[in-house]
Structure formats: structure tokens, C-alpha cells
Amino acid sequence: MVTDSHPLGLFKALSDDTRLQLMLLIMAEQEMCVCEMTHALNESQPKISRHLALLRQHELLLDRREGQWVYYRLSTTLDAGVQAILQHTLRHYRHYIRSAQERLTTMGNRPERQRLCC
Fold first, then answer.
1. What is the pLDDT of residues 35-87, one digit of tens each?
2. Domain range enclosing 70
3. How far apart (Å, rounded) are the C-alpha atoms in residues 19 and 51?
4. Burial profile 82-107: b = 16 or more Cβ within 10 angstroms, e = fewer
5. Which residue intervals define the domain HTH arsR-type in the entry (predicted)?
6. Which pLDDT band, with edges at 50, 70 and 90, does 112 fall under?
7. Overall number of domains in the chain
8. Distance between CA 57 and CA 3 in Å, rounded?
9. Least confident of 5-14, 20-29, 44-53
10. Is residue 111 part of a domain?
């Protein structure tokens, strides 16, 4: 992980309200497009993109491009301890992202994800 052996980088990355909401939303949805995140958090695309870049820099997220869409998901190399922290936070503080998830349900024209076989 780019945050090296010192946990400060990790906790700084997660300490921002927008970044923490993004991580929890992505964890809850498994994968999200930038346009879904901007709609869910009611924020501009440049702001969301800056936060996503920092989360990618700390190897917390992976991205993939499919046509015009860029999708983000949790990194497959995420440390088990970090995963446990995020899972605990999502489980016990789901209300923290409830309004963002509700906004997401009102979004028309959500991009279709490619269905991958096992």
C-alpha cells in the first residue's frame, strides 16, 4: 500500500467526509461510476475525481474503463485490517450514507455494468 508502513496516510485519506462516504458507498454498491457518485453526493465531477485520485493513490480503490464510463471498486489488495475497519463502519454507521443511497435510487439512466461470469 502506498501509505507505507505508517498508518497516518491511510487515516488521513479516510478522515475526509467526502472520501469516507465514497469508500462506504463503493463498498455498499460494490462498484460505482463517477456519474453515480456525483449524483449520490450532490457534488461536482472535478471534486469527486480529486477525491477518487487520492483514494487510488493510497491503493484503496481500483478503476476500470468501459466505454465512456469509469468504474471504481475497492482494491483487491486492500489489507484485511482496513477491510475490517470499513466493513465495521458500514455495518454500524449505514445511516452515514443513507441519504446518498436514497439519492442514488432517484438517478435515471444509471450506467449498466458489464456482468462478469464467475
1. 999 999 999 999 999 999 999 999 999 999 988 888 999 999 998 999 999 99
2. 8-104
3. 6
4. beeebeebbeeeeeebeebeeebeee
5. 1-97
6. low
7. 1
8. 9
9. 5-14
10. no
Measured CA to CA, the distance from residue 17 to residue 12 in angstroms comes to: 11
How is residue 57 annotated by DSSP? Answer: H
Q: What is the pTM of this model?
A: 0.87
In a domain, 86, yes or no: yes
What is the identity of the amino acid at 107? M
**Beta strand extents in 52-109 (DSSP E only):** 61-66, 69-74
The DSSP call for residue 61 is: E
Instruction: Show the beta-strand stretches assigned E in the chain.
Output: 32-33, 61-66, 69-74
**Which CATH number is 95's domain given?**
1.10.10.10
Find all residues with CB under 8 Å of 61, minimum gap 6, and list them. 23, 26, 52, 55, 72, 73, 74, 75
